Amino acid sequence: MEIKAIGCEPLQLKMMHVKDGHTLKVYEDHGGYKSLKKAMNMSSDDIINEVKASALRGRGGAGFPTGMKWSFVPRDSPKPKYIVCNADESEPGTFKDRYLLERDPHALIEGMLIGAFALGVETCYIYYRGEYNYLIDIMDKAIEEARAANLVGRNILGTDFSCEIYTHTGAGAYICGEETALLSSLEGFRGHPRMKPPFPAIEGVYACPTVVNNVETLTSVPQIIEMGGIAWRDLGTEKSGGTKLWSVSGHVKKPGVYELPMGYSDMEKFIMEDCGGMLRDDKKLKAVIPGGSSVYIMNADQIIGKNVTLDYEGLVEGGSMVGSGGFIVMDETVDVVDSTKNLTEFYRHESCGWCTPCREGTDWLVKIFNRVADGGGRPEDAQLLLDICDNIEGKSFCPLGDAAAWPIQSAVKRFPEDFKKHLFQNTGI
Amino acid sequence: MASVATDYTNQVVYTDEVADFSPEIVEEMRAHLVKYPADRKRSALIPLLFVVQRERGYIDNEGVNFLAKFLDLEVTDVWETATFYSMFNMRPVGKYHIQVCKTLSCRILGEPEITGHICDRLGIKPGETTEDGLFTVTRVECLGSCGTAPMMQIGFDYHEDLTIEKVDRLLDTLKAGK
Ligand SMILES: Cc1cc2nc3c(=O)[nH]c(=O)nc-3n(C[C@H](O)[C@H](O)[C@H](O)COP(=O)(O)O)c2cc1C
Ligand code: SF4
Ligand code: FES
Fold it and tell me: β-strand A326-331 against B135-140: which pairing, if any?
């Protein structure tokens, strides 16, 4: 598996191939914690303004501007405030945070501390998906190292800034990546999402102001403070600042984690050259899901020769979304009915059961896919699938419902031949 | 006297016996509590359920009763949370819990063959445990390792870039180690 930057100097991936890069000493040898020291001589407003200027958008999937999110946290709250790092990483096709957490834990600690200093936060939690157990050990050691160096805990670097960082584990539930479900889970409850508003910035964990940010969002912060917001933004485009990590899996020769400047051109070159092209030379590209499973699937005609740029705007124009940046590449051997069934099984399994459209809808979708797979497809099934999606999308309590509908809606539209093959097989057409 | 409820086959379905943990384990549990505000002990529930599962093999009635007492919760609160999360086993599993990722990237790179091979060798179907209690096979959703698909987790250990030969070597080692 490849881990490398293309079209830019490695920033996010700076420590990936450095021996013992996860240790405090090596991290500091490479300039680590300089940004924290710099930030601690800045005002809260100046730090938040740098993050705003950087055009950093949340890397968890929703792409919300980070500086703006931070500015929603009330300044003079009588309640304690929290930063919660979302390390739940469970979106199919996404595995970038895992390598940051494994090889560069201090960058996350530093990013959280800068945020904590700016927002007056004294307690941070890192919420890991339960399966990432080995990464918690790595982080606990890093936090202890940082504490011994007076970078975490009481009176950091001899100032009156104090901040604790704790790791916390989930236990196998994709929905706990949704920020409000994550907070329910952190409080020891079932991972059901909560009504928004109030947004977590006002009422998050323990009903206190809380910033929830993705791992990669927070590890970008030290770079922004070091370079300055504008300089960081200019690595990418005006609306999509900086560089971003993409996880690539499926039928390519070189799957991996790639760091690209935002606005990278273009998607075809990325797959066909940077990722080594198709796994088997005699098989053609058929489909790509570019943003983790919860975005529209694209067919080869939407990619080849279309100059789709890799940033928030470019991928929307191209017919999909950045999402979590998880590319799943499929060659012509893949039956898109089968791949869509596979993802629908995922959403049925992960539906938290709180609201009826998603709980019942995903169950019916899987039932239909199972019948089709068993050879019982009917021509009207395509419309039936779309009708059920219609009753889920926009009518569910949280975005997981939409995420279950989008792969099906786009697959039926963009791969009609695959559906026809299954649905018309009994009609002789 | 403990109060015990049984079903029509005389299976115990509920007991109010409380599990007994060694002082070291209780200390380990207590160490989790420092992370959360004193009036928010419930936050430690998921981490502590993992301790119970490790010590008792699965989430059992006596272990749940212990956590309810330890965290000042109702027994039903503990069950409510425990049953939501797929990593908590409500029944005993084999010494080695093989969890093969079945999601898309793994599927298109050979998961069905890998699962089929493991099940053939062990003589069980997904969801079952071998008679000697060594292996349980479960098909699970994406484990964040799609770049090294197909893959599986045994306990908490990642095994990536799987091939049939690699799986065979692994199973041989685990069997020999029993
Ligand atoms: C069903 C669902 C699953 C999600 N999973 C994750 C996840 O695994 N990791 C993550 O960082 N964000 C995930 N998110 C997005 C979070 O709700 C939230 O937007 C994000 O953590 C905010 O951080 P950011 O602004 O830094 O991206 C998920 C959202 C939904 C609706
Ligand atoms: S949409 Fe699905 S995951 Fe979200 S609250 Fe409803 S049932 Fe739960
Ligand atoms: S699809 Fe198998 S690890 Fe992600």
Answer: unpaired
- CB of B104 closer than 6 A to ligand 3? yes
Residue A129 token pair: 């998906």
Q: Which residues are A248's β-sheet partners?
A: A256, A327
> Residue B1 pLDDT > 60, yes or no?
no
Chain B residues inside the 8 Å CB shell of A174: 141
What's the length of chain A?
429
Return the SS3 of A334. coil
Nearest to A258 by CA among A282, A283, A290, A229: A290
Task: In whole angstroms, give the CA distance from residue A127 to residue A180.
Answer: 12
Looking at residue B154, its amino acid is I
Can you give the pLDDT at residue B20? 96
Q: Which domains does chain B have, with CATH numbers?
A: 3-84 (no CATH), 96-175 (3.40.30.10)
| Predicted confidence (pLDDT) at residue A429 exceeds the cutoff of 70 | no
Give the tens place of pLDDT for each residue, A280-304.
999 999 999 999 999 999 999 999 9
What is the count of residue pairs from A and B with beta carbons less than 8 Å apart? 140
Number of H helices, E strands in chain B: 7, 6
Check CB contact under 8 Å for A187 and B158. Answer: no
Out of B84, B105, B143, name the one closest to residue A328 (CB).
B105
Closest to B162 in 3D by CA, of A193, B154, A313:
B154
**DSSP 8-state symbol, A244:** E
Which residues face B129 on adjacent strands? B136
**Structure tokens that stand for B79 in this block:** 């069950």
Mutation target to probe the B interface, by most B beta carbons within 10 A, among A249, A251, A343, A346 is A249
